[in-house]
Amino acid sequence: MSKNKNLRKKAYEVLGDLLDPVTAIIIALTLGGIIIALLGDDVSIALSALFKGSVGNLRNFGQSLLSATPLLFTGLSFSVAYRSGLFNIGAEGQLYMGAIVGAIVGTLFSGLPGIIYIPLVLLSGAVAGALWAFLPAILKVRLGVHEVINVIMLNKIALYLTNWLVSGKGPFRLGSVQPATPFVDDAVRLKALFPGTPMNIGYLIGIFIAFNVFMLMWKTKSGYKMRAVGLNRNAAEFAGINVSRSVLTAFMLSGALAGIGGAMEIISVYGRFYAGFSPGYGFEGIAVSLLGNNHPIGIVISSFLFGALKTGAMKMQIIAGTNVNLVKVLQALIIFFVAGRWSILSLLQKQVDKFRAFRKRREAQDPAGEENNL
Amino acid sequence: MSETIIQMKHIVKRFPSVLANDDVSLEVRKGEIHALLGENGAGKSTLMNVLYGLCSLDEGEIFFDDNKVEIASPKDAIKLGIGMVHQHFMLVEHLTVAENLVLGAEPTKRGFLSYKKAEALVKECAEKYGLSIQPKALVADISVGEQQRLEILKVLYRGAKVLILDEPTAVLTPQKVQELYKVLRNLRENGHSIIIITHKLHEIKEISDRVSVMRSGRIIGTHETSSVTKEQLAEMMVGRPVIFDIKKEECTPGKVVFEVNDLKVKDYRGLPALKGVSFSVQEGEIVGIAGIDGNGQSELLQVLSGLISKTAGKISVSGKEVPAKFTQKDMFNLGVAHISEDRQKWGLILDYSLEDNLLLGLEGEKQFNNGPFLKREAISARAIELIERFDIRTPSHEIMAKQLSGGNQQKVVLAREISKDPTVLIAAQPTRGLDVGAIEFVYKQLLEQRANGKGILLISFELDEIFSLSDKILVLYGGEIIAEFTRDEATVDAVGLCMGGVRRDLNE
Q1: Most buried one in A87, A216, A320, B212, CB count within 10 A?
Q2: Residue pair B258/B280 in contact by the 8 Å Cβ criterion
Q3: Across the interface, do B363 and A224 touch by the CB < 8 Å criterion?
Q4: Domains of chain B, with CATH numbers?
Q5: Complex ipTM over 0.85
Q6: Measured between CB atoms, does A226 come within 8 Å of chain B?
């Protein structure tokens, strides 16, 4: 009986949690439609192109997954830090470091089978990202320097450092015409899973890692401690939890996740490291994480949504002739409404409360009793 | 001319999860001191916030001098002549008394601020109401009592006829409380009306003309203070008879389990906060540290829990010296448990479930984990057992700590700390913000621990609490222990004097 009740309560909670973003998406798409119309394009063609172009067929679906993969990792990266009380907006830099180290490792050991080589490349990306996060983490723990300032600077440093590494004077260009590293070994390139779709196992690896993040954060001792520090640092410290160690762990884990994302992008899409390849995956990850309630399961969904929007927007541009930046407007609107917690449920609740108050007042006045006799 | 100044009729105020005021009506007469009594969370503050315009009301009406008024903001309230003195003073420390007084309504001379005028105004105001105060002194330099006087003066300066005082005696020594009463009586003679929010019964008997008792959002009754006894008031407040006498069995203290020697600590500004504090706690003994807030209590608690490090001194537990640098974990391993002064800040993680809160600090114990993974069944089973044993009122062990009432939150902290089976229990303000029922429970638990031979260090600002529980009373003033009493020789007057800084020769 009570178990049943608990289950139902939980179902309501999950439903409530889901309703917020779903409402936000509906409102955002509606407003987006209005904007499209105002720009003079055909709304129905544009929106159907957006839909078909993102999930309409296997090919586009695969492309959406491909676009979603880096966001899944940077989203996870942000969420782990956020849950631990850190604001890591440095995923971009950590991603670059993971990408370049992954790309270099990918050229070093030709002859290794993919089953060993791919994990090795991803691992090297993780280590690079974690080390890049170690600096702001140790500064925070030892000197109390706020992480945001440091990671912003480290983002720039990572970008220009990698730019230089693959520039004409840099050590890793090695005969390439473009500012890029040589191509990685064929064994580490992720192949399409089915013919006719670019989908590879990247996103599946992402889901697997998201599951591990969930297990770590919610089922283990160190996750318990990290989240405790994130929710109430004082109480955690007072209870004897080593706050510094938790902060270090969380920050480096966050960096590692972004680093894997970088390495993954190299072996999945580009095949080599290009200078400035990321269009801002690290920052989009923040939105993905917040949209997914900073929870691994939510992030799997929200990263796909963002990937699909990106892919669909391209098709929308081709078919309906809309501006490609429109999708950024849509993303912004979604974030805006999610952040504002415009949930249908809470809006409804407000109306119901108002109505009840009104009725009660009427009842209190109508029975022409005590009030008038006074 | 009617004799009432304020009438609040059928006030309803809802917050998302609670009905803070449920059809409350209150009437305050001209020239009376009206006490508003109730436990924490009874709705007193909400009601006064509505009156002062800090909260909008959902339903109901307010009449001021028989005219219906809308009070949408403190500005409206001040315009009408309603002023509020908050428990935590709203003063700018680095401005002078005069500057603080006129802040928001500064006197000007040809468009420029005139300090002379301001100072003259302070003098005039102070003389008019018989409140002595130095206009040129910096607020940071004057005493808490003077700051409170300044707050009252500020309200009067803005023309208040009705003063709302929120727990005005919480920061004062017993002697200063008497001075405040004199001021309030003076104001009453001048025709002002005063509303005092409080949960201290003896204050009500001493100062108020009438008293309204609130419980769970409703007014239980309004009475002439002279016509009710303390016991009746307490019963109205809690909803059941309250036994005031706490049975304290005789205990013979055993060997010393906790010893602090010449402890020195600096506060966050680098100023000395503890200037060589020494004391010891024996088995089966409660040592109470009395004193006004801000005399080093927080620092003492923080250094004893390893949150800040000491600059000198020695701490030993059961004869073993605590290393120079230690963490809370080391203290736990030595057998020291803590009940913190602010359960929401230090004691609990409000967004964690009850069972996770009960686990806090114990997650490393063998029985609760399988290597890196937590053992959920063991954690839940223990939570259920502790909920039963400590009578924590909760629908489930899985709900968030923030959903519990203050009393139940404190029970969670108590349950966790006592279940660690410590040799020494440090309890700082263990009943802060709790209702009478919960206070009784906490006292009982602490006394039970004392009977079990634990050494207990009690740090509290409530003198009543110190007197009800302690076997030995120390007074902390300005970072030093300036007096020591055995329970039998201690009187409220004597301890109160010391809390104000009067030194008493130790070993007198």
Answers
A1: B212
A2: yes
A3: yes
A4: 4-238 (3.40.50.300), 256-499 (3.40.50.300)
A5: no
A6: no
